[in-house]
Amino acid sequence: xxxxxHPSRLLVISELFLPxxxxxxxxxxxxxxxxxGKGVHIVTADVPGAAAIDRDHRNSIHRIGLxxxxxxxxxxxxxxxKMLGKSLQLALxxxxxxxxxxxxxxxxxxxxxMARLLRKPLVVYCHGxxxxxxxxxxxxxxxxxxxxxxxxxIANSEYTVEAMxxxxxxxxxxxxxxxxxxxxxxxxxxxxDDLKQSVGLQAEPRLILSVGRLVRRKGFDQVIRxxxxxxxxxxxxxxxxxxxxxxxxxxxGLAAELGxxxxxxxxxHVSPEDLPRWYNACDVFIMAxxxxxxxxxxxxxxxxxxxACGKVAVAGKAGGxxxxxIDGETGLRVDGDSLHAVASALAGVLSDKPLAEQLARAARExxxxxxxxxxxxxxxxxxx
Length: 384
Known about the structure:
13 strands, Rossmann fold, single chain, seven-stranded parallel sheet, six-stranded parallel sheet, alpha/beta
């Protein structure tokens, strides 16, 4: 890890941070650990396992209890007040160069108050999904107000940039910064035979892998629907799925209905040490994401992790995945609503080894050259 040349003194307000799972928490940890050591103060939620993270973290982590209370209007009012109170305490003891909000709400609104009180620049992240899933009520209007009044906004893909501009955010305030990937942690040739054996696989079966929250828009159900057809084509395919979420029972039931329960391996959470090894264990990675009721994928950091491990990826066309997977060059992008398209893409890469290796090699090279966390940190530092 290479710290930026001129460490910054930042106040970062983020409800989500490690050990909470998710791509955004990995992003914040990777960037801010490079930006300023203990001079970066992160206000975040107190969650189980936090003490182990905070003990050795390069940054100064400040945990507060953040819970929505049903009898308050809005229910998140207590969260806003606690974030603001802790931020004010820190501002009395430390000098900051800028204030960063990890999302528009609740963090961005609190960060705006702090930035104006301190007369420092405000930087707010936009991840894409919030632009299309927050309805058109007061929450939506407050979100837009924050983005429109920030000094700088970080957008994670071209899709997110254009969506923000359509909603009235000035383009000159938006900086496109792709997320990155740790190519030392996620790399090819990691031992993984024991992982395959843990789900009953020997050398022959082909393993399809997905990683993500178990929600409908991720398209995991389409992969399960594709399994019977793959088997009929003579492809002995199994499907390993890492993640938890509300669709667990739905996916289990769907596999039983289609007679492929023995081919579906729901793994839940896996250890940080095993996650890169699971990528190595698979023959193809897929997240056939689609848009459902406006909810879509802003980028898809999992595609970078797969690429870093030297694996070909299949992505849905919805949202901003085109920034992570270049169709026909570093992987395949398909219509996640089309079972035929999903099944054909899987069959193609599983039955054409030279094609899969060519796409995977190009994906790995692109990740190494364009998606390092050091580069992401340097671009973020330039906004201050």
